[in-house]
């Protein structure tokens, strides 16, 4: 199978490459063309996933396709952007039809769920790696950035934390587990749902936002720095899923929630006056702390005492696999 045959068979003719809102020209020419409504800005993000570094070499291709796009689309969610299109640069050791078929189906399933059209890419031979670029649109000046958190705001997250890291021992085959809890954690790892609707709902409400990919404490550090504030995280308020706490001891579950990567939940800061509205739209959200004057991320135990030094203690764990 030659390069053009491969592109045509698995990507250009895929259902997710059939165009969509904002796509004036898709796969097949030298460039794709996008049409933005007047007054909107383009939001762009790129991620590369390398076999053996970001996912196991033998990863199921369907799950890999799904996860790769979810991870990228999560960046659009974090900015409050509406998904439009994506490109795929694929480096493959060989052109195996069964692998490509599974991969393209997983990719397309996530693409259609997110409202992203495949508009182009590149195909080369080499060690397996994937680079995805996602494009979204956002009203000019309305994107959610990491800067803008203000003292007095509430610190919130879009749902349970730690599931991605809690799934890792199962993903890597270091731990055997069956049943509904294991299935839940594996699904959270392999098909995290980018919080796109939440991100769009936070536009005009949240003062800062990002998606948690490197662990809550590390990522909150980015908001604290960009906004010039201190974030206080209340450890007893971290939302832990029943599956995470059923399959792991509480200490490990907390570590996963504080410092584990791969959650792809949004973390955001919210003026208290906006809380009821956002809770109404997104009941799974949780208030986990507050913003204050100062700097850095601080962790409080259930008695309100500061746990020291929280970030240093967990950073090594959190940097696994990045
Ligand atoms: P060029 O030589 O002009 O860069 P290519 O021959 O690399 O174009 O690709 C031909 C067309 O197929 C282009 O529209 C390109 O965007 C698209 N394409 C190539 N690889 C992929 C892929 N893996 N997924 C989706 N589209 C792809
Ligand atoms: Mg060209």
Automatic annotation (TrEMBL):
An example molecular function term from Gene Ontology annotations: ATP binding
Annotated residues for binding of Mg(2+) 1: 46-47, 122
Gene3D superfamilies the UniProt entry points to: PurM-like C-terminal domain, PurM-like, N-terminal domain
Binding positions for ATP per the UniProt entry: 121-122, 146, 213
Positions of the PurM-like N-terminal domain: 28-138
Major enzyme class: transferase
Coiled-coil intervals, chain numbering: none
Catalytic activity: thiamine phosphate + ATP = thiamine diphosphate + ADP
Binding site for Mg(2+) 3: 30, 75, 211
Annotated positions binding substrate: 54, 262, 314
EC number: 2.7.4.16
Sorted UniProt keywords: ATP-binding, Kinase, Magnesium, Metal-binding, Nucleotide-binding, Thiamine biosynthesis, Transferase
Annotated Mg(2+) 2 binding sites: 47, 75
Binding site for Mg(2+) 5: 214
Pathway: Cofactor biosynthesis; thiamine diphosphate biosynthesis; thiamine diphosphate from thiamine phosphate: step 1/1
Ranges where the PurM-like C-terminal domain occurs: 150-298
InterPro entries with a match to the protein in the record: PurM-like_C_dom, PurM-like_C_sf, PurM-like_N, PurM-like_N_sf, ThiL-like
GO BP terms in the entry: thiamine biosynthetic process; thiamine diphosphate biosynthetic process
UniProt: Mg(2+) 4 binding residues: 30, 45, 75
A Pfam family assignment: AIRS
Function noted in UniProt: Catalyzes the ATP-dependent phosphorylation of thiamine-monophosphate (TMP) to form thiamine-pyrophosphate (TPP), the active form of vitamin B1.
HAMAP family in the record: TMP_kinase
Additional remark text: Reaction mechanism of ThiL seems to utilize a direct, inline transfer of the gamma-phosphate of ATP to TMP rather than a phosphorylated enzyme intermediate.
Alphabetical list of NCBIfam families matching this protein: thiL
Family: Belongs to the thiamine-monophosphate kinase family.
Protein known as: Thiamine-monophosphate kinase
Source species of the chain: Metapseudomonas furukawaii (Pseudomonas furukawaii)
Lineage: Bacteria, Pseudomonadati, Pseudomonadota, Gammaproteobacteria, Pseudomonadales
Protein's gene: thiL
């Amino acid at each position: 199978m030659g390069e053009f045959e491969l592109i045509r068979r698995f990507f250009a003719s895929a259902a997710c490459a059939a165009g969509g809102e904002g796509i004036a020209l898709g796969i097949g020419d030298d460039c794709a063309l996008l049409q933005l409504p007047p007054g909107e800005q383009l939001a762009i993000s790129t991620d590369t996933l390398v076999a053996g570094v970001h996912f196991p070499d033998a990863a199921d291709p369907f799950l890999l396709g799904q996860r790769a796009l979810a991870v990228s689309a999560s960046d659009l969610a974090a900015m409050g952007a509406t998904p439009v299109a994506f490109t795929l640069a694929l480096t493959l050791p060989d052109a195996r039809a069964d692998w490509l078929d599974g991969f393209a189906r997983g990719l397309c399933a996530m693409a259609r769920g997110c409202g992203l059209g495949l508009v182009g890419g590149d195909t080369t031979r080499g060690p397996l790696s994937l680079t995805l670029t996602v494009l979204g649109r956002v009203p000019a000046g309305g994107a959610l950035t990491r800067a803008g958190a203000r003292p007095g705001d509430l610190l919130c997250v879009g749902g349970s934390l730690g599931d991605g890291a809690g799934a890792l021992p199962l993903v890597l085959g270091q731990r055997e587990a069956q049943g509904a809890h294991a299935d839940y954690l594996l699904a959270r790892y392999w098909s995290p749902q980018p919080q796109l609707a939440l991100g769009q709902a936070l536009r005009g409400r949240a003062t800062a936002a990002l998606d948690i990919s490197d662990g809550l404490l590390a990522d909150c550090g980015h908001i604290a720095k960009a906004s010039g504030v201190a974030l206080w995280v209340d450890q007893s308020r971290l939302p832990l899923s029943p599956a995470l706490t059923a399959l792991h001891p509480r200490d490990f579950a907390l570590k996963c929630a504080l410092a584990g990567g791969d959650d792809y939940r949004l973390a955001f800061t919210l003026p208290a006056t906006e809380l009821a509205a956002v809770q109404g739209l997104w009941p799974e959200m949780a208030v986990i702390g507050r913003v204050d004057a100062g700097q850095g991320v601080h962790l409080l135990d259930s008695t309100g005492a500061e746990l020291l030094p929280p970030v240093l203690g967990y950073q090594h764990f959190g940097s696994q696999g990045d």
